[in-house]
């Protein structure tokens, strides 16, 4: 089995550990009412987006998310949360360093032997979810689970839903799809962007992602037979009916979008193998982007 296959499969157990880690570090996590910014790069940014939208939707305080390279340094927050599996991503380290002394920062990382521990004020150690594959799966969803647990969400049903997604069949028409567009509303949009990136990283294929209601504003024009439209969360906007005449296949599942993402991770691995690619060795990617000059 590939590394990524093993890492995808161990998500339910890692999510349960994340709940324990979060409850042991509750005082480090954002408190109700705080203005919070959440940052990351790549996959970690999309997890930041999902968490930010969830926290704000729950009325727990204004929560912004940014790609670390696009952070508005002139703003002030009550707390910064940085997500970085490697703990070495240049844009994250620079951002954490630059805000020092202004407001506190918590880093979620899988490697506490890296420079991120020197530039953050607090660290949530998720090393039990570290990965061998370059393409992130278990670390990303485990970081999101820890943050969701900090919002008071129960993790056991989420882990159970992931088990369902791990056992579900992967239809042939998904594996051979020529193109996939991922959609989601609210926090599920962050999941849609991550699903889209996962497919691109592992399979070098054409994917897109949009907020659900943006789909009718142009992107639907590429729906066609042999292509998929994958909706995370309930299709309350009735998009299925609009996609039907295009001949594209509309896919949605009742599970929590984070658990449904597990299906897409499995699909990414299966489609990569089908194309003769090694999903553990994505083209032009490295575990971490470390720049030899300042990012800003
Ligand atoms: C973030 C990241 C990954 C991406 C690639 C490069 O790393 O952008 O999402 O897949 O491997 O690094 P990190 O800051 O979470 O370590």
From TrEMBL:
Transmembrane segments: none
GO molecular function: carbohydrate derivative binding; hydrolase activity
Domain SIS positions: 25-153
Keywords annotated in UniProt: Hydrolase, Repeat
EC number of the protein: 3.5.-.-
Domain of life of the native organism: Bacteria
InterPro entries from the UniProt entry: GlmS/AgaS_SIS (IPR035466), GlmS/FrlB_SIS (IPR035490), SIS_dom (IPR001347), SIS_dom_sf (IPR046348)
GO biological process: carbohydrate derivative metabolic process
Coiled-coil ranges (or none): none
Root EC class: hydrolase
PANTHER family in UniProt: GLUCOSAMINE--FRUCTOSE-6-PHOSPHATE AMINOTRANSFERASE, ISOMERIZING
Name under which the protein is recorded: SIS domain-containing protein
Organism of this sequence: Streptomyces sp. R08
């Amino acid at each position: 089995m590939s590394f990524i296959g093993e890492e995808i499969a161990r998500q339910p157990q890692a999510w349960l550990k994340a709940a324990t880690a979060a409850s042991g570090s509750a005082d480090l996590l954002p408190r109700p009412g705080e203005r919070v910014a959440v940052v990351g790069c790549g996959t970690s940014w999309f997890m930041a987006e999902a968490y930010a939208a969830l926290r704000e939707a729950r009325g727990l305080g204004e929560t912004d998310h940014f790609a670390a390279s696009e952070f508005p340094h002139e703003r002030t927050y009550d707390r910064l949360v940085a997500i970085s599996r490697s703990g070495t991503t240049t844009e994250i380290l620079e951002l954490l360093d630059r805000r020092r002394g202004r407001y506190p920062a918590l880093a979620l990382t899988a490697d506490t032997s890296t420079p991120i521990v020197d530039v953050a004020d607090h660290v949530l150690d998720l090393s039990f979810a570290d990965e061998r594959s370059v393409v992130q799966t278990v670390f990303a969803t485990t970081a999101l689970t820890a943050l969701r647990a900090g919002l008071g969400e129960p993790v056991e049903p989420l882990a159970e839903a992931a088990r369902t997604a791990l056992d579900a069949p992967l239809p042939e028409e998904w594996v051979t799809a020529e193109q996939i567009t991922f959609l989601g509303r609210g926090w599920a949009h962050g999941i849609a962007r991550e699903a889209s990136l996962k497919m691109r990283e592992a399979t070098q294929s054409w994917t897109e992602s949009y907020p659900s209601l943006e789909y009718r504003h142009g992107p639907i024009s590429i729906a066609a037979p042999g292509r998929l439209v994958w909706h995370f969360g309930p299709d309350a906007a009735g998009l299925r009916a609009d996609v039907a005449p295009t001949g594209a296949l509309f896919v949605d599942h009742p599970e929590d979008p984070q658990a449904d993402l597990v299906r897409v991770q499995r699909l990414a691995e299966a489609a990569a193998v089908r194309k003769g690619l090694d999903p553990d060795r994505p083209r032009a990617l490295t575990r971490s982007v470390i720049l030899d000059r300042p990012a800003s």
